[in-house]
Amino acid sequence: MRTDSTTDDVLRVRGLTVEYEGVAAVSEVDLTVARGEVVALLGPSGSGKSTLLHAVAGFRSPSAGEIWLHGRLVAAPGHAVPPERRDVGVVFQNYALWPHLSVVDTVAYPARRRGTGRTSARAEALLILRLLDIARLADRRPAELSGGEQQRVGLARALARRAALSVFDEPTAHLDTHVRGLFLEELRARQRDSGTAAVYATHDAQEALGLADRVVLLDAGRVVQLGSPEQVYAEPVDLWAATLTGPASMLTTRVARADAEHCTLDVAGTEVRVACKSPELSDPSVRRLLVRPEWARLGGALPGRLRAVWYRGPHTDHLVETPVGDVLIRVSGAVSGRQVGEAVSWSLDRTWALAGPDGPPPSAQPPLSSAASAGWSEPPRR
């Protein structure tokens, strides 16, 4: 058995490829997860998130590459340590509750497996059930629960598991916002307290950015970008990555001057100096520039016309048509009172130059994508 005592990583994935009938669902993935770290896998349906988790847990065998857990090789072509010997807690979309156990005994089971006495294990289970607001279900069996209640019990059991590594496959997809928040808050607190690691697959960008220490953007089984939540949101590698992680406007305009921290843009004849740390701006020219909704403001020297307004509770989104492209501007609070169709002014604080070829000239700039105008959304396929 191959081991490596020189690393503190809980999980190391090296060149992992997993195929289904000759088609790669995961291709040449490299990933490490350190003790106490939460890594989120973010991608649309079919991007390979579940396959990667199944391979780590031991339910899929690699076609190429290696998987190491706690410095021990657990998977490679021709070599596989069974799932029950990997010390990996698993929460998949199938709740897999035992029909003969009550809710409290289901959640207490991981503690009983660790050798905790029945009374203490049940007390710990009741605490977790209260945290997830389902203590009232303690004595019920799975057949007496709704689908949403079963999911919450499965999550409670996962919190009680205390595995060195836990993998989560979109575990909150069918939960309401309140319960989702409770679970994520408790999960993060337990990760910090215990030092255990987690790999968390989701297609919800807000969930990934708010929970993880690092985020992996996956598409068609390949890693498109890996970095901190701040990096993948503010410095995406391309437009696809930008729309995956949040609302994204794209402006096409000339960069008159640029240095390490700022650039001067020529926006329809008006020069504006904005923050823009991007290697793509080393050669000033016409560029495709990303603008997040909070990077622009209503009011300023730049001309525009209001195309649409959406009130979203904590904030209001304004879609502004400009000579260099449509820009989504987010304003805290209620609707501003401006009317669709009226002329408005706006200003820009920050931008990020997108990689790839220069965009079309400003006169040919297409409307803002639906992903940007409608809020969080899955991006189109690459």
Q: How are helices and strands ordered from N to C?
A: EEEHEEEEHHHEHEHEEHHEEEEEEEEEH
Q: Architecture of the largest domain in CATH?
A: 3-Layer(aba) Sandwich
Can you tell me the CATH topology of the largest domain?
Answer: Rossmann fold
Q: What summary fits the major beta sheet? A: 6 strands, mixed
- Output the radius of gyration: 24 Å
Average pLDDT across residues? 86
Helix content: 10-25%
The total domain count is 2
Task: Please provide a written account of the structure.
This protein is an alpha+beta fold. The chain folds into two domains: 9-234, Rossmann fold (3-Layer(aba) Sandwich); 247-373, no CATH class. 24% of the residues lie in helices and 35% in strands. It is built from nine helices and 20 strands. The protein has helices spanning 49-57, 103-113, 118-131, 147-161, 177-194, 205-211, 229-234, 239-245, 370-374, and strands at residues 9-20, 23-34, 38-42, 64-69, 72-76, 79-80, 88-91, 165-169, 197-202, 214-219, 222-227, 249-258, 262-267, 270-275, 286-291, 296-311, 315-321, 327-332, 343-348, 352-353. The strands form four sheets. A six-stranded mixed β-sheet has the order 7-8-9-3-10-11, with helices on both faces. The chain has a five-stranded antiparallel β-sheet with strand order 2-1-4-5-6, covered by helices on one side. Helix 2 (103-113) packs parallel to helix 4. The longest helix is centred in the middle third of the chain and has 18 residues, at 177-194. The protein is globular and about 75 Å long. It starts with 8 loop residues before the first strand and ends in an 8-residue tail after the last helix.
